[in-house]
Design a protein that fits this description.
heterodimer; A: alpha/beta; FAD/NAD(P)-binding domain; 2 domains; five-stranded parallel β-sheet; four-stranded parallel β-sheet; 11 helices; 24 strands; 26% strand; B: alpha+beta; Cytochrome Bc1 Complex, Chain D, domain 2; 11% strand
C-alpha cells in the first residue's frame, strides 16, 4: 500500500520525528531561538525550550536588567506583607542549569526579512524563531499633563523597580488625614485587579499606622472593575469611609494633572492630594510595536493555537504584549502562554511531539490581612481567540477560612511561579 | 471497556482497565483509568456480580495484555503527562519543595493522586482552582499526570 503524504506526515509526527516538519535552518549548527524580554513570559519560555529540547535548540535570552523585580506581588510589598529584596531574581540558573545564553542589553531592532535581532552593542543574533515578550509600555500622554518626568512626583509604579520603591516611600509619608488619588487605567491593561488590591494595601497601611482618617479616591477610566463584587463590600468592612471609587459616569474624564502641585482636575472636580498614583493607559512593549507586530489596539494579535504572531510566522508574542482573548494580562497567564509557545517551538525546531494548547490563569488579591480573593479560569484556543471554557470568582459570602486559605495559596503560588521561571 | 480479569492463583485477581468505565467503582480502591493494572484478593462473589463487566481470559493472555497496556501507557503517558504537568508546576513545585498553601505532589502515589483529582472533580473537595483544573481533566489525562508525578523525585534544590 502506498502512503499518501498526509498519512506519512501523520505517522512521522506521531513518532515525534517529523523530518519534513523541520524548518529551514539558518547557516549551520543547531536551530536558534531568540527571546526578547525576561519576565514571566520570556523567562518561562527560554527555560522550557532549553530544558526540554535538551540541547537541540540554541536559546538566547535578551534582557537588559541584571536583576528582575517581579511586578506581581509588588502590592504586597506596598502593604508591608513582603520585602522588596524577596521579589528580585537573577538569570544565573537559566544559564547554568539549562544552557540559555543571556544577553544583558537592550534589543535595538528586528530585521524580519533577514531573521536577525540587533542588540545595543551592535551584536547581531540570527534566529530561526523569535519570541517577543516585552510586556507593556505606558502611554504617559493618555493622561493630560502626565509624563515620564512627572512620574517622579506622581509615580505609576506599574513597572517594577525604582517606581515601586518611590510609591512605597510616598505612601509612608502621607500625613494623617491626607488625601490619596489613584487614576485607574482603561482596559486593556496589565493586572486587572491590581489597582484595587493596591488601594486595599494603601488603606491597610494607613489603618495600621494610626492614619484611618486618610482618604483614598479612585478616579477610574472604567465603569466597572475586576472582582468589584468582593472588593467593595470588603472595603466597607475593613476601611469604612476610607475608599471612594468614582467611575467616569460620575466624575467625567481626567482633564489634567499637575505633578508639581499634586493637582488632578476632572470634568467635575479639582483634587489636591498628598499622593497621586497615576496608572496610565498601556500598549505592547516598544520592540513589539517597532517590529510591526501590533494592530490598531496597540497589542499583538496571535494565533490562539500556538501563540504565534499573526503578522509573522517566525515570531511568537507571549504575555502582556499579546492580545490574549479572554485571558487577562497577568504573570500567571504569561507563564501559561509561554508553555504553549515553548511546546510549539520545540515541535517546529526539534520535531518534538505537540499537544492541543490549553491555558489557565488565577489572580489573587489581598484586601486585608488573611483576607484574599481570587478570580481565574481555564481557556482553549479557537480560530478567533483564546476562549474561556471555565471560570470562577470569589463571592462576598465566602467563609473567612476560605479567604485565609486563598492568601496562603497565593503565597505558595508566588514561590511556585518564580521557581518555574528562574530555578 | 473494562478489563481482563482473575489471574491463575485461586482467590486472587488481576484487572487490566482497557478504557474508562463507570463500572470500576464495583471494585473497591481499584483505580479506574485506562492502563490501570491492579491485583488483589478476590472478594466473595466478586466475579459473579461483575461478570457482565469483567471479561475473564486466560492468565497468559492477561499477562500479555498487562504487558502491552503497560508498554503503550508508558510511551503515551510520559509525553502527555509531562505536557499536562506544566500547568501544575506553576504552583506545585517540581522540586518537591513544600510551600505554604500549596501541597507537594511530586512522588505522590498514583492512586492518591487520581483520588485527589477525582475528589475535586466531583466536588467533594473545595478549592475553586483545583475544581477547575480537575473538571477539565479526562480519566486518561489524570492517569498520565499521576504516572508522571509518581515518577518524579524531589530534588535537593529550590
Amino acid at each position: 500500500m502506498q502512503l499518501g503524504r498526509r498519512q506519512f506526515l501523520g505517522g512521522a509526527a506521531a513518532l515525534g520525528t517529523s523530518i519534513l516538519g523541520m524548518p529551514a535552518i539558518l547557516g549551520q549548527g543547531r536551530p536558534k531561538l531568540v527571546v526578547i524580554g525576561g519576565g514571566a513570559a520570556g523567562a518561562t519560555l527560554a527555560k522550557y525550550v532549553a530544558r526540554d529540547a535538551k540541547g537541540a535548540i540554541e536559546v538566547t535570552l535578551v534582557e537588559p536588567m541584571q536583576r528582575y523585580s517581579t511586578c506581581f506581588g509588588s502590592n504586597l510589598y506596598l502593604g508591608g506583607f513582603r520585602d522588596y529584596d524577596a521579589m528580585v531574581y537573577g538569570y544565573d540558573k537559566l544559564a547554568s542549569a539549562y544552557g540559555v545564553h543571556i544577553q544583558q542589553q537592550m534589543a535595538q531592532g528586528v530585521d524580519r526579512d533577514r531573521r536577525e535581532v540587533k542588540l545595543a552593542d551592535g551584536t547581531v543574533l540570527p534566529y530561526d524563531r523569535l519570541a517577543i515578550t516585552p510586556g507593556i509600555e505606558l502611554k504617559y500622554d493618555s493622561v493630560p499633563g502626565y509624563s515620564e518626568a512627572a512620574a517622579e512626583k506622581m509615580p505609576h509604579a506599574w513597572k517594577p523597580g525604582p517606581q515601586t520603591k518611590l510609591l512605597k516611600t510616598m505612601i509612608d509619608a502621607v500625613p494623617k488625614g491626607g488625601l490619596v488619588l489613584m487614576l485607574a487605567p482603561p482596559n486593556p491593561y496589565r493586572c486587572p485587579p491590581g489597582p484595587y488590591e493596591r488601594v486595599s494595601m494603601m488603606a491597610h497601611v494607613f489603618k495600621s499606622t494610626g492614619r484611618s482618617n486618610c482618604k483614598i479616591i479612585i478616579v477610574d477610566a472604567k465603569e466597572k472593575f475586576s472582582k468589584q463584587g468582593v472588593f467593595q463590600p470588603a472595603w466597607e468592612k475593613y476601611y469604612p469611609g476610607m475608599i471612594e471609587w468614582l467611575p467616569p459616569s460620575i466624575t467625567g474624564a481626567v482633564k489634567s494633572v499637575d505633578a508639581a502641585t499634586g493637582t488632578v482636575i476632572t470634568d467635575f472636580e479639582t483634587h489636591k492630594a498628598a499622593l497621586v498614583n497615576v496608572i496610565p493607559a498601556q500598549t505592547a512593549g516598544k520592540i513589539a510595536v517597532e517590529t510591526g507586530l501590533t494592530n490598531q489596539t496597540g497589542y499583538c494579535p496571535i494565533d490562539a493555537f500556538t501563540m504565534k504572531s499573526k503578522m509573522d510566522a517566525n515570531i511568537y508574542v507571549v504575555g502582556d504584549a499579546c492580545i490574549p482573548g479572554d485571558m487577562p494580562k497577568s504573570a500567571f497567564a504569561a507563564n501559561s502562554q509561554a508553555k504553549v509557545a515553548a511546546m510549539s517551538i520545540r515541535g517546529e525546531l526539534a520535531g518534538a511531539q505537540t499537544f492541543p494548547a490549553r491555558y489557565s490563569n488565577t489572580c489573587w488579591s489581598l484586601i486585608e490581612t488573611a483576607d484574599c480573593v481570587k478570580v481565574g479560569g481555564h481557556y482553549e484556543p479557537t480560530p478567533e481567540k483564546i476562549k474561556e471554557v471555565d471560570g470562577f470568582v470569589s463571592q462576598p459570602t465566602d467563609a473567612a477560612e476560605m479567604r485565609k486559605q486563598n492568601y496562603e495559596e497565593s503565597v505558595g503560588w508566588y514561590e511556585g511561579i518564580t521557581a518555574d521561571m528562574f530555578a | 471497556m473494562l478489563y481482563a480479569a482473575r489471574n491463575g492463583t485461586p482467590g486472587r485477581f488481576t484487572i487490566v482497565v482497557l478504557s474508562a468505565s463507570d463500572r470500576c467503582g464495583i471494585i473497591k480502591k481499584t483505580l479506574c483509568y485506562p492502563g490501570s493494572i491492579r491485583s488483589g484478593i478476590s472478594a466473595p462473589g466478586m466475579f459473579n456480580e461483575t461478570k457482565q463487566h469483567l471479561r475473564r481470559i486466560r492468565p497468559a493472555w492477561l499477562a500479555l495484555a498487562a504487558l502491552l497496556v503497560a508498554g503503550a501507557r508508558a510511551a503515551a503517558d510520559t509525553a502527555l503527562g509531562e505536557y499536562l504537568s506544566t500547568e501544575c508546576v506553576t504552583c506545585h513545585r517540581l522540586s518537591g519543595k513544600i510551600t505554604a498553601g500549596i501541597p507537594p505532589i511530586v512522588g505522590l502515589p498514583e492512586d492518591a493522586f487520581v483520588n485527589a483529582l477525582m475528589a475535586y472533580k466531583t466536588g467533594q473537595r473545595a478549592n475553586d482552582v483545583m475544581r477547575s483544573v480537575a473538571g477539565r481533566l479526562s480519566a486518561e489525562e489524570m492517569a498520565a499526570l499521576a504516572a508522571y508525578f509518581a515518577a518524579q523525585k524531589p530534588e535537593g534544590g529550590p
